[in-house]
Amino acid sequence: MSNEVTLDMVLSDPEQAIPATKVELSISCRKLRDTDVFSKSDPMCVMFVKALGSDQYREIGRTEVIMDNLDPKFVRKFLVDYFFEEVQHLKFEVYDVDSKSTDLKKHDFIGKYECTMGEIMATGGGVIKKPLVGNVKNCGTLIVRGEELSSCRDLITFRFRGEHLDKKDMFGKSDPFLAIYRQNLDEGFTISHKTEVIKKTLNPSWQRFQMFSRALCNGDYDRKIKFECWDWDRDGGHDLIGVFETTARELSRGPGTENVYELIHPKKKAKKSKYKNSGLIFLEEYRMEKVYSFLDYILGGTQMNFTCAVDFTASNGDPRQPTSLHYMNPYQPNHYLRALRSVGDVVQDYDTDKMFPALGFGAKVPPRMTISHEFFLNGRPDHPFCEGVNGVIEAYQRSLASVQLYGPTNFAPVINHVANFAAAKTDGSQYFVLLIITDGIISDMHHTKQAIVRAAKLPMSIIIVGVGATDFTAMEELDGDDVRLSFQGEAAVRDIVQFVPFRDFENAANAVISQAQLAKEVLAEIPDQFLSYMRAHGVKPKPRRGSITSMASQSSAIASAPQLR
């Protein structure tokens, strides 16, 4: 799991400002109020941001939960785009987690603190220490540390082992783990990573792990790095075994005598004249590789191909009636049109020829009025392309006048349609994104899962926008953020589905902001999904060109398209 939560601030101006820099926020607490009776609290910090021009906060991320600890130092960070010219309102809330529920109301609220990005960055060393405000006095102290990140994207793989560690448990051996800290500008230290705990051993061999160099040293290879070795205790009162310091430059020399470190326990060293060390730590593996960004591939010529698929099932209601989700209100676009426009206006910038395949499903189509789960909105049996977002919208409107809404709601055919094109372009030269807009629960969940598990192996992502008031709980299963989707025991190799209910964005006072927020939400995971495919297949970007290259049309592949029914 990533130790970073990324936040791109939502702006009221559609022409968003360019952030001055990215800032990493590290969170820790001191002397939290203990809300548990028989143990210490299990704290978690939640960060909220107030969008420009709005009075409402929205959640953008959570730290991990640290068990039985009133002085937590959270490993997971928040990455924030910092705009000098804006007042960026932030809120931090600390909870004692009581269950696996994601509903914050199910956990004990400890306290909160509100501030701005400017307050954090304007303090000496970029650190604020403020009391949490809660329902009682003395809720504890929140410490927020902000540091500008370098653009360094080197990914480093480490593996360490220990020998002859001190025995800290009375009735058994130690349960050691490593905690790694990066030195701050004020010469303090911020935790960057924790290894797993190895139970009952004085000679641990930890699993290999990866860290970005910006998390390890912010790209400064001569900056101090501190390693602490601890003996884990169930009650959270871990015992220090020893400490050593090094630098990224020293570690880059790899395994060898230069990277064998003595663990020193400061108190033991001060008390015992014959004290030597509390064990040894060996660097067993070191590997550094450059990690490429989404834009590295786009500027190198990778083509993004976008397809939309619209739900024409009868559950949408008669398009001639105002209650229908497909109703063409002359004064306000329906949800389908707003979703098409929101996403289309963003993605069309990555397609120079502006030709988009547009599909429909769940309707009876002319001339024989047979049901189809995969028809072209423009009415042509051999050519699905529409010219620009306006062309897609026009084709959608024409289809409403010519097809009969029917059912059921089957996703698998349109997913397989796009997957067949993606299967022909697995070299990383093209990437495919399918936008499905639907009002209902999937009728072919079994086949849809099968299609998604197959598509996860291909250069492809799926966005699902749910419109209307239907209960979309079943849709969450397809969005594998928490539990990876599987089919007959085979797990999807990547999480490629993003589901968003349209109703979360339809009540915004400003339609422009609402549309921008919807596009931002549905497209937010595409770059990471794109990169996960490229990394898994060892695809490196081509050298950057002078401008974003024209996107080749899919037209040449139409001849090999599956026969539509």
Summarize the structure.
By secondary structure, this protein is of the alpha+beta class. It has eleven helices and 29 strands.
How is this structure best described in words?
The protein is α+β, with helices and mostly antiparallel strands and 565 residues long. Helix content is 18%, strand content 31%. The chain has eleven helices and 29 strands. It has helices at residues 117-122, 213-217, 248-251, 266-271, 294-299, 335-347, 388-402, 412-423, 445-455, 511-523, 526-536, and strands at 4-7, 21-30, 43-50, 57-62, 77-82, 89-96, 108-116, 127-131, 141-148, 154-163, 176-183, 189-194, 209-212, 224-231, 239-247, 260-262, 280-290, 303-311, 355-361, 363-365, 370-372, 375-376, 385-387, 404-405, 430-438, 460-466, 486-487, 490-491, 497-501. Strands 18, 19, 22, 23, 25, 26 and 29 form a seven-stranded mixed beta sheet that branches. Strand 20 (363-365) and strand 21 form a beta hairpin. Helix 6 packs across helix 10 and helix 8 runs parallel beside helix 9 (445-455). Mean pLDDT is 85; it is low at 8-20 and 546-565.
Got a strand count? 29
Biggest pleated-sheet summary? 7 strands, mixed
Report the principal-axis shape. elongated
Q: How far is the first residue's CA from the last residue's CA?
A: 42 Å
Helix content: 10-25%
pLDDT averaged residue by residue: 85
Backbone structural class: alpha+beta
What portion of the residues fall into strands of 2 or more residues?
A: 25-35%
Radius of gyration: 27 Å
List the uncertain runs. Answer: 8-20, 546-565
- Number of discrete helical segments: 11
